[in-house]
Amino acid sequence: MALTLRGALEHPVVSAAAPELLTPGVDLDVPVRWVHSSEIYEIGPLLTGGELLLTTGLGVVGADAGARRHYVRDLAARGLAALAVEVGRSLPALPVEMADEAARRGLPLVVLREVVPFIRISEVLNTLIVDGSTTRLRFSERVTAAVENAQSEERGLAGLLAAVGRLLDRPLVLVSAGGALVSAAGTTDDRTAWQVVDAPTAQQVDVVVRGRRWGAVVAGAAPAATGASDDDVDVALRRLAPALGLELLHGRGAPSRPDQLAARLLADLVEGESPDTDVLVRAGAAGFHPGAGDVVVGVAVDAPESRSGLSLLQAAARTTGGTVLRGRVGAEVLGLFALDRPDPVRVVADAVTAAWRRAGEPPVRAAAGDAVTADRGAAGWRWTLSRARAASSLLSSAPPPPGTAGPVTTARAWALELLLHDAGAPLADLADSTLQGLRRWDARHGSDLVRTVETHLRLGGSPSRTAEELQVGRQAVYQRLARVEELLGHRLDAPEAHAALLVAAAAARLARTPPP
């Protein structure tokens, strides 16, 4: 943080000189660029502004009142941060006309009533100034490196905001000049993003595209005292804004020919208009070449802007070691991964999660579909994409199954929920057919027996894992399970009841929210 006049006056080396401010109402938060001492009357032309000038007043001892006023007036015109006069040696008291002229010009005038060597004050404060400048320079270099890394990895707008927001420990929001929320990092939803923009303490810097103001990047307040200073935030935003402008300009450009072909193929697969006879040829033209033994996994990404979603899939493909076909279809970013790995769905989901973390955890959601062999052609590729899209839709609208929290999921984690929605089952009736006694008990006592049943069954019947997921003690789990079996009239591990209990519990959870 830059040294301010307030900080200089409150520093022990200056407070030892018993400073007294004679011009109330002046801004004490002005930065002090340097501390200088001089007894020369004509010092003004040698100053460049922002200095704290220390003097004993020797240069004005023999001057008349008019000359003293001119001395103060000239220093104020040079943009001096403050004039500090030590009284008692050259000047027994500060001349009234100097104080009056300083008040007229708004120049902070300080009287030092105790003797502290000026060399000592200059040495200490100038060291702080130099150290602060070095710290700000290093911070600026860190911001530059973060921005360049995000650009080189093509993380998009959200990735740029997340990279710099993590350094600042503040939420960042990008808004257009027309008042549209474009992207954000460090916020949980659109509502909290708008709270950042509307906060009176928010800092912002304009984003310019092709010489015109496109919008602004806004930084919210620091969540803790350890956050970056306002000066650091300003430096970071000014470095980030051109990168955002470049990203916006790049995003407006026409996509490459392979990217166009990929997007069209994915759109035709979603709409059911791509026959098996030409899907491999079209995929090859877009740069997607599944091997003979590969499986294909579809991924659907819900991202605030397409570049961040496309970058996420590209980064994930580098981790899986396979190839990816990606493109924007409507409001979604879709991808097809081709790879030859055990448990390919988990490999893809973990790769997307790792890419999301490297990108600074931008506000996106993603879901991986079921795996199909590459030779299934259009029908198989369409199937895995449909499963990914359906799971992504559920991820954004329904409470997640136990043990699956996070922004990246899989269709198999939502298998029951997808079957229930596809069947159009009456969820509340299905839940009551098996769990009516438990649901009534929960309603009367404010308990959580239905959720305990589903968690316990999904986590392999492990009381320890159930307790960890529900964040309760193991003894509490045992007590709940005993109550459940009492109300059901049979044991939870009864083989013929296991599937019905799990389906009914999933239906009860889905019944709390409208279908997507």
* Overall mean confidence score, pLDDT: 86
Radius of gyration (CA) equals 33 Å
For the largest sheet, list the strands in their spatial order.
1-5-4-3-2
Tally of helical runs: 19
Structural class: alpha/beta
Low-confidence stretches: none
What composes the largest sheet?
A: 5 strands, mixed
Distance between the termini: 49 Å
Measured as a percent range, the helix fraction is: 40-55%
Using the alpha-carbon principal axes, give the shape. Answer: elongated
* Beta-strand proportion: 15-25%
Query: How many β-strand stretches?
Result: 14
Structure description:
With 516 residues, the chain is an alpha/beta fold. The protein has 19 helices and 14 strands. It has helices spanning 5-10, 12-15, 65-77, 96-105, 118-152, 156-168, 190-198, 230-252, 257-271, 276-285, 306-320, 344-358, 377-397, 415-423, 427-445, 449-458, 463-470, 474-488, 495-510; strands at 19-21, 34-37, 51-55, 82-86, 109-112, 172-176, 181-185, 203-209, 212-219, 295-302, 323-329, 332-339, 365-373, 408-410. The chain has a 5-stranded mixed sheet with strand order 1-5-4-3-2. A 5-stranded mixed sheet has the order 11-12-10-13-14, with helices on both faces. β8 and β9 (212-219) form a beta hairpin. The two termini are 49 Å apart.
